[in-house]
Design brief:
0% strand; globular; mainly alpha; 7 helices; Ferritin-like_SF; signal; DUF2202; single chain; Ferritin; Ferritin-like; DUF2202 domain-containing protein
Length: 213
């Protein structure tokens, strides 16, 4: 039910964006804003494809539920690309990316995650750190309100996903150390409560939790 409600809310958000920006064109955006949208489209695809691949390897609910949220994240960025008349860089084939850096990141994280369940969960936490780092930077750089709304929504979801991955790791006896975020910022996020409205995770209580909300 939570997934359905979130999908409805996302659809409303996207319809507002589309109606407000139909026909605006990419000339209204800076080159940096365009590059940010293209990057986040593939970055969200990386998360979706990676977690889906791990779901095929490990019978853990977090790898079943979080990919659904990532699909919503991808759809949100795709709607912005369409609204601003930008070509979609996302390849329909799983695990294939135009961005060479993201391709290398995906390949490495997939290889790491195949070693063990813990390694897969750590790869997931790393991806969410990457998303948070990039979304926070892009939010500081962009002045377009429609993009800010979507990025803010995705950022809430990524914080929730990071909380979910670190809590599942803790439930499995592992303490995740941040790789990208400053320790104090990381601690502030993972020690915080789950947030609503980010297409992220619900309360994480079981060993394999990660229910989409």
């Amino acid at each position: 039910m939570k997934t359905k409600v979130s999908g409805i809310l996302l659809a409303v958000l996207l319809s507002v964006v589309m109606s407000s920006y139909a026909g605006v064109g990419s000339e209204s955006l800076t080159d940096e804003a365009k590059a940010g949208l293209l990057q986040m489209r593939e970055e969200e695809k990386l998360a979706h494809d990676l977690y889906t691949a791990f779901g095929d390897l490990y019978d853990l609910r977090i790898f079943e539920n979080i990919p659904m949220a990532e699909a919503n994240h991808m759809a949100a960025i795709a709607t912005l690309l369409d609204a601003f008349g930008l070509d979609d860089p996302a390849n329909p084939e799983a695990g294939v990316f135009q961005n060479e850096e993201l391709q290398a990141t995906y390949d490495q994280l997939l290889s790491d995650g195949k070693v063990s369940l813990v390694a897969a969960l750590e790869s997931g936490a790393y991806v969410e750190e990457l998303d948070i780092q990039d979304l926070e930077r892009l939010l500081d750089e962009t002045t377009d309100e429609s993009i800010k709304v979507v990025y803010s929504n995705l950022l809430r979801g990524s914080r929730n996903h990071l909380r979910a991955f670190t809590r599942v790791l803790a439930n499995n006896g592992e303490n995740y150390e941040p790789k990208l975020l400053p320790q104090d910022h990381f601690d502030e996020i993972v020690e915080g409560d789950m947030e609503r409205g980010g297409q992220g995770q619900g309360n994480c209580r079981g060993r394999g939790c990660g229910k989409n909300n």
